[in-house]
Structure formats: structure tokens, C-alpha cells
Amino acid sequence: MKKPKTIRRRSFLVGAGGATLAIPLLSSLGQNKVRAQERSTKNFVSYRITNGHFGHQWYPANEAVESAGGLQPMGEGVIGTRLANLPGEMSPLLDSQFDGLREKMVLMRHLDRLDHCNHNPMNGLLGYTSSDGRLPESPENMPPSIDQIMAQHVFGGEISPLNLSVRWSETLPSGSYTISPEGPIQVPGLNSQQAYQQLFAEFELGESEAARRRGLTRSVIDRVLPHYRSVRDNRRLSRADRHRLEQHIEHMDALSRRLESGRGECTPPVEPEAGRVRSAEIDRAAREQVDIGIAALRCGLTNIVNFYLDPDTLFTSELHGVGGGHHGASHSTNDQAVESIFNAHRWHMRNIASFAAGLEATESGDGTLLDETMILVNNELGSQSGGSGNQLGQYDLNHASYDIQTLIIGSAGGALQTGNFLDYRSGHERGRWTRHIGMAYNQVYITAMLAMGLEPEHWEVGGVQGYGDMRGDKWGRTPLDQVQMGDLRAGLPGVIS
Questions:
Q1: Burial class (CB in 10 A: 0-12, 13-18, 19+), 255
Q2: Which end of the chain is more exposed for a tag (fewer CB within 10 A), N or C?
Q3: Of 172, 120, 124, which Cα lies nearest the Cα of 146?
Q4: Cα dihedral value 311, 315, 319, 323, nearest 10
Q5: pLDDT tens readout for residues 253-274
Q6: Are 382 and 360 in contact (CB under 8 A)?
Q7: Taking a C-beta distance cutoff of 8 angstroms, is the pair 441, 111 a contact?
Q8: Which residues contact 439 (CB under 8 A, 6 or more apart)?
Q9: Which stretches of 57-196 are assigned E, i.e. beta strand?
Q10: What is the 3-state secondary structure (H, E, C) of 233-271?
Q11: Which positions ≥6 away from 209 have C-beta within 8 Å?
Q12: Secondary structure (3-state) at 422
């Protein structure tokens, strides 16, 4: 059988809505015989929030959970309920703007980071932090952040993560890290002007050019479909793999028809305004970054987008209801500070909802671009309210990451089970801070990598199972024998399909 031609992603239609010419992994033919044909149709997006959160603002109230039937077993080591069954809004922050996404969301709680955290951009996508200098003895052997691992092993180094930032400083942070002999090196973030210039400055696509590219892509599809059909007719192919391949061929036929109709075109966003972002411009700057992220995925210019929109002191009482900056409010215990944290998070929620809505509105394959994507909403720190559900506790959890704010939107092409509120409490309790000890947050990283099609060999170093630092917290409030570790190669129960 003639080996099908490998088609580079940049040669595929810009604007195909995230679809590619990937052939599915067919185990019955042997992975080595199809690896050259694997091109992922999936996207990974992270949205980082800083300075912790208050659980009573973020999680469903206990009363709402009870009305939905209570927390029931949802797999080994996890209890939960369907988000669709929660009455009213899911929570004060996950309000009505997320109602249409309930079936495509996974809201999780009692996920605990065990290492040294503090305010640190490393503890978003990297399995280690170094706020106190504690790194492995040979930091050059650390794995990079999960987005970098995806870029290398899922997309063969053909794409780079797009790091979009909004902050008061001229040097913008990101959660993306490479590794040097000295340890992690942060990849700088881009402001909206920089991101636009990098992606769209020379991008011009009139209707005639769009039509030409659609025709080119339909021609490419027509050329590869005979190769796919020849694989389908291979006698070594199992019945299950043949069914998968037939579904893929149907998908490619549908894609060709969609391109012929002119839908799913790539449209560059509006060019951002020039100049350094100040308080009055942060809402506009955030909208620009959201629009750039949507367009970058829609146009196939990247499969990985990391948002680090951290205005901090650019928040104002007049415009955003946040006094003294986001970070300053997070270190206070008065009612005004608690309300400020709510307002800061409400600002972030508008950005997240707008981004998810943009992907959901983009047709791709047999669904939407959101269906092909995993959006991971994460925080550097944990819940500072200390209670359970909407109950308040002690406000003294400033620099630890217990009960981390974690939300997934999208199923990464069906790799994730969605529509649930999941609780990973281990059965052990603390005498202080968040009440329930949970599952190691490192499982979130592994879940994301598995969902994108990676294997443990891509992130494990030195034969040690898992990803990241599992040494336990410096205050001894999370004994390792009381934490749910889970299968370090299987991801989160109740989430991985």
C-alpha cells in the first residue's frame, strides 16, 4: 500500500475552523505505521487567574447541590452531580452567561497542590514551583510546562503556544516554561499589539482569496480520501478501527461540503489600538486578546493559547469595583476586600464566557470549535473562604493552594466527560483552612495531556511516574497518606473518557 502523503498544517486551509486531515490512531495496524499521519484536531487553552478565590463565590451552594440530588459516586475516588440539575445559577460567578455551556463544562473542587506555591506563575501549567528555591537536584531534567510538551509531542514542534497577556508592567508574564540547565525559563507573554503583529499584520483575505483557499483545501481532501479508503480496506484493520476510519471519512466529506458553502472562514480580528495599557483601557485590551485567541484557533495559526490577563493594580473602584488592586484585596479580610475579589473574578468570567462563546459559535467538523478544544481555567492559589459550598471559614489561606479554582470547558474532541460538578475529597479533614483534603492537583496536568493525546513517556523523567512535585506542603497540613494521589498515569477519575 502506498504510504499516504503527510500534509503540513500550514499547507492546510487557513480558516478551516480547527479541523485537520488527521487520520485516526488505528491500533490494529500498529502505531509506528500511522504515526506520520497523525495530526491532532484538538486545541488546548488555559486561562489563568491569580491571588486565590473564595469558594462561596465560585462553587454551587450546598443547598443547590442537595436540590440536585446530592453528591453521588461518579467514579473511583470522586463524587458529584450533573450541572444541568443545579437549580438557578450554578454559583454567583458561574452565572447565567454559562448556562448554555453546562453540558460542556466540568467544575471540580478539592484539588490540592502539595508543593510550595505562593504567588507564582509556575503553578499554572508547570508541575513544580520555586518560590523558596526548591527544585529537583538536576533541574535540567525537569519536564517543561504542559503546553510546551503538547507543542513538541502532539504537534511535532510545528506550532508554538500563543501566550496572551494583559498587565500593568511592560514585561508580560505567561504560564509557559521551557527548561534550561538552571531550571525553568518563562516564555514572555504578548500584549494585544504584539500578538496581532505576529499573527495578522500581513494577513489579507478577501472573498476571492478565501474562495481560492477553500477550493485548494477541497482539492487536498479529494487527494487524501482515496488513501484513507485504502487504509480502510486493509485486511489487518480491526472492526473497531474500520468503524473509526469510516467515521473519519464521513467527517472529511462533511468538511469538504462545509468549505464549499463558505462557512468557517478565517477573519482576522480588529487591529488593536497602540500604546501601553492603562486602567481605562484594560477592558478593551482584554477583549482584544479574547478576539485574537478566537481568531488564532479559527484560522489554524496555533492549537495552544494561554491567557494570562492579570491587570492587578489596573483595576479601579470606579471601573471594576476593585479597590487597592487585586493582589492587595486578596490579603485582606474585610467585607470590602471579599467583594473586590468577587468583582475581579466577575471581570475574568466575562472574558472566559466570551471566549467560549466565540468557539461555540464556530462550526467545525460535526460540531463546534469548542467541542475540539479543552479550556482549562486555573488559579495560582486555593480557596480562601475555608468552608464548604457557600459556607465561610477563616480568611488565612493566602499562600497555599488547597481547593484550587478549576474548571474545564470543552471535551477535546470527546476525550473528556463533561456536564458534571465533581468533588475529590479524600475523606480526611484539616483542622484549619479548607476543611476537606482532596486529590493531588498534578492529576489535572496529566488529564490535560492525556486528553490531547500524549502518553506518559512524553512527560515522565527518569522513570518516575507522574508529573511534577509530590513532596507535600511545607506546613504539614496535607499529609501525603491522607491525599488522594490517584493513578499517576490515568488522570482524573470522572473526567477522562
A1: buried
A2: N
A3: 124
A4: 160
A5: 655 554 454 435 688 999 998 8
A6: no
A7: yes
A8: 77, 78, 110, 111, 112, 424, 426, 483, 484, 485, 486, 492
A9: 72-75, 78-82, 105-109, 111-112, 162-166, 177-180, 183-186
A10: CCCCCCHHHHHHHHHHHHHHHHHHHHHHCCCCCCCCCCC
A11: none
A12: strand
For 14-41, what is the HEC assignment? CCCCCCCCCCCCCHHHCHHHHHHHCCCC
Which pLDDT belongs to residue 4? 36
Q: 374 forms bridges with which residues in the sheet? A: 44
**355 alpha-carbon distance from chain centroid:** 12
Question: Is residue 430 within 8 Å of 17, Cβ to Cβ?
Answer: no
Residue 352 to residue 58: CA distance in whole angstroms: 14
Angle at 438 between CA 379 and CA 344, to 5 degrees: 25
Write the DSSP symbol of residue 309: E
What confidence score (pLDDT) does residue 31 get?
A: 40
CB atoms within 10 A of CB 293: 24
Query: What does the pLDDT average to over 230-256?
Result: 67
pLDDT per residue as tens digits for the range 460-486:
988 888 998 776 665 667 788 898 988
For residue 319 the three cell numbers come to 471601573
pLDDT tens-digit series, residues 16-35:
333 344 555 554 544 433 33
Tell me how crowded residue 376 is: count the other CB atoms within 10 A of its CB. Answer: 25
- Coil/strand/helix, residue 80: strand
Distance CA 67, CA 36 (A): 51
pLDDT at 251: 56
Rounded to 5°, angle at Cα 343 from 342 and 345: 65
Which run of H or E residues covers position 328? Answer: helix 326-330
Structure-block grid coordinates of residue 64: 443547590
Residue 38 has pLDDT above 70, yes or no: no
What are the angstrom distances between the C-alpha of 218 and each of 205, 211, 277? Answer: 18, 11, 42
* AA identity, residue 183: G
Of 136, 191, 121, 133, give the one whose Cα is nearest residue 162: 191
Q: What is the pLDDT of residue 263?
A: 37
Q: Residue 469: left (phi > 0), alpha (psi -120 to 50), or beta?
A: beta
Residue 165 near residue 173 (C-beta atoms within 8 A):
yes
Rounded to an integer, the average pLDDT of 182-190 is 92
Query: What's the Rg (C-alpha) of the chain?
Result: 23
